[in-house]
Known about the structure:
Blueprint: E1 10-14, H1 22-32, E2 36-40, H2 43-46, H3 50-58, E3 61-62, H4 70-84, E4 88-93, H5 99-102, H6 112-135, E5 139-149, H7 163-185, E6 188-194, H8 200-203, H9 208-218, H10 226-237, E7 248-251, H11 262-273
The structure holds 1,4-dihydronicotinamide adenine dinucleotide (NAI).
Amino acid sequence: MSAKLLEGKRGIIFGALDENSIAWKVAQQANEHGAKFILTNAPVALRMGAINKLAEQTGSEVIPADATNMEDLENLFKQAEEKLGGKLDFVLHSIGMSINVRKGQHYTDLNYDWMAKGWDISAVSFHKVMQTAWKLDSMNEWGSIMALTYMAAQRTFPDYNDMADNKSYLESIARSFGYHWGVRNKVRVNTISQSPTATTAGSGVKGFDGFINYADKMSPLGNATADECAGYVISMFSDLTRKVTMQNLYHDGGFSNVGVSDAVMAQFMNNESE
Ligand code: NAI
């Protein structure tokens, strides 16, 4: 393998649910690159048990934490520093969930209790994670904090529902908190805006199969896979990207800058000649 980009670095990885999860791939690659880390997920997700396999593979420990619960987060960060033997160099927030999406509630008929819960889990939790690390002074200088997002924050994808609003909020938190982290600790904060990816969270979106194929046909380089996303996250945790902060970074094979592609146009041209 090439150079180990994360040798000597310590971190926390949120959101590895099963082997399709983007966070799962990040954990595998972080391990290959020499990092030591704690895996964490909501207690209810841990009951599935898959994460233990990943912990074994990567020689890491699992500490449960509901990312909306400040006590859980405080315990997580304190224990992580203790078990890993020092302050942290990276944190990955790979968390998302909308009850309205899950229950098929239309955007024009949202259940606001569900909306508030989904917003807390998918967006505010990023602030909670950072505020916890901030108050405990858990991050080393030149550390890197990342969250994952989707382009529905900028452009409308009707079936993405209230997750679009959650992602906008999440990206804004990255900029707002990124400022303070930069000034106080030289820590960078960014979001990666990833192609549609076949995971539990992704596949929950209505019409996902059509959606993922469309994105693939629109992207000059094709959709980015979960493994490729993990590679980008590793580069953002490495010392090669120290001055990148407060950015929303597209990792989508070019999708976000394409108006229309030949492959998509071809579908319409065919229809026209029928
Ligand atoms: P996933 O379903 O494998 O991961 C979502 C994770 O969020 C799960 O591990 C789940 O247990 C965790 N989670 C939910 N509630 C939680 C809570 N209260 N506390 C702590 N953890 C909680 O799916 P995926 O796709 O790997 O999602 C990771 C991130 O990537 C999410 O932010 C998602 O929105 C984002 N993303 C996904 C895309 C896709 O098409 N799959 C595209 C762009 C971004």
